[in-house]
Amino acid sequence: MMIRSKTVYLGSYVHSVSLDQLEHVEHAIICVGETGVIEWIEHAGAEDLPAVSVRRGLVLDDIEVVELGPDEFLSPGFIDTHTHAPQYPNNGLGHGVPLLEWLDTLTFPTERRYKDVEYARGVYERVVQTTLNAGTTMACYYGTLHLEATQALVDICLEKGQRALVGKCSMDRNSPDTYVEYTSTAISSAQDFVASFPHLHPAVTASTPSLPPLVQPILTPRMAISTTPELLTSLSTLAKSFDPPLAIQTHLSENDEEIRTVGRLFPESKSYTAVYDDFGLLGPGTVLAHCVHLTQEERELIKEKDAGISHCPTSNYFIASGEARVREMLDEGIKVGLGSDCSGGYAHCLLPVLRLATHVSQSHAFANAQRRAYKPLSMPEAFYLATMGGAALCRLDNVVGNFVPGKEFDALRIKPRSPGVWVHKGEKVEDRFAKWIWAGDDRDIREVYVRGRLVGGSSR
């Protein structure tokens, strides 16, 4: 079998060119090289391919041509900036249960099971393929306390081809006796987890290609309540021992009771956000999940440190945490992405998350009707958060998030087929895209590509 060095995609595509602007391209030729990087894009039809090939120096017999159907289009892959891989078996459980009770009664008992590595592997195989098929080309995963199980999650992401930041949870207090680490163990296991990524070592890095690793570690202090000052200090030191510092993910300001508890545990800090800053954990690679009840001062601190926020509206509604004020965050220049937060959130696909993000923002607009200048989150903005916003949050906006030459081809091939999406012959790609966003689901995701490799979709 001949191995083609390049692949050319013919058809329509939609992507974000800025926070509030989508580009809808009806006819395009996208050339992807053998490393999965977009080499060039021409706004031309399939009939123009011979002429374009001559101009671009391509030999048609040496390339693979993928021609989209008349109702199909390409979309950038979704980037889920906050989700818990071990919690997917609990999806749909715990509606309305407050956060801390939800953790004790549902989450921690489930996560304890991942001490069994074979059990973990079975769940994670399904989680990664399910999220890929649903269009998540990149995920920020929380694992459990278990080192081997979380390493298995890394292996599975690599095997199946999903881009990911994977974190082994760190928890050394205020957790069940059967699901907690000694501080010394939490520190050493975090170090061991990072050490298992060979690409982080300078000798290896110097000899590897320029493409960023598909799967990278992210330090994961679960939340301030469950981590001691000693552990937070050690994780900060570990992060800063690399250049650039390792990414960090944690929870922030999700629930009123959580915030009060943090205040009692860290009386020296001015706020919940300040706790993380006081321990050197806020920076460009920090992903802060939820941020429902931030003060103005806290938002300013997050912006100052160039950290970012993962907005998780399905979770915030499902376990009754509240409504994050995303419009204010964006207006103040804070980086924001979207997170499914399974199983606090019930959706394994970012489409419902994207939709609910607009509804939550509209709810704020209704409540502030007297403020005529209040602008609810638009669909183009929400789509940006699900793609380019997530990429920026993960420090990969120069790598993925939209279709630009030099970026990697992480893409969804959309073929409308779900019951809610009715496409008419000759309908513009702008309308097909809008119907999918508002009325479609993952059945419409025919194929999923990461770095140019076909890794999922409803056709598989």
Automatic annotation (TrEMBL):
<comment type="function">
    <text>Catalyzes the hydrolytic deamination of guanine, producing xanthine and ammonia.</text>
</comment>
<dbReference type="InterPro" id="IPR011059">
    <property type="entry name" value="Metal-dep_hydrolase_composite"/>
</dbReference>
<dbReference type="InterPro" id="IPR006680">
    <property type="entry name" value="Amidohydro-rel"/>
</dbReference>
<dbReference type="GO" id="GO:0006147">
    <property type="term" value="P:guanine catabolic process"/>
</dbReference>
<protein>
    <recommendedName>
        <fullName>Guanine deaminase</fullName>
        <ecNumber>3.5.4.3</ecNumber>
    </recommendedName>
</protein>
<comment type="similarity">
    <text>Belongs to the metallo-dependent hydrolases superfamily. ATZ/TRZ family.</text>
</comment>
<feature type="domain" description="Amidohydrolase-related">
    <location>
        <begin position="73"/>
        <end position="455"/>
    </location>
</feature>
<keyword id="KW-0862">Zinc</keyword>
<dbReference type="GO" id="GO:0008892">
    <property type="term" value="F:guanine deaminase activity"/>
</dbReference>
<dbReference type="GO" id="GO:0008270">
    <property type="term" value="F:zinc ion binding"/>
</dbReference>
<dbReference type="InterPro" id="IPR032466">
    <property type="entry name" value="Metal_Hydrolase"/>
</dbReference>
<comment type="pathway">
    <text>Purine metabolism; guanine degradation; xanthine from guanine: step 1/1.</text>
</comment>
<dbReference type="GO" id="GO:0005829">
    <property type="term" value="C:cytosol"/>
</dbReference>
<keyword id="KW-0479">Metal-binding</keyword>
<keyword id="KW-0378">Hydrolase</keyword>
<dbReference type="InterPro" id="IPR014311">
    <property type="entry name" value="Guanine_deaminase"/>
</dbReference>
<dbReference type="Pfam" id="PF01979">
    <property type="entry name" value="Amidohydro_1"/>
</dbReference>
<dbReference type="InterPro" id="IPR051607">
    <property type="entry name" value="Metallo-dep_hydrolases"/>
</dbReference>
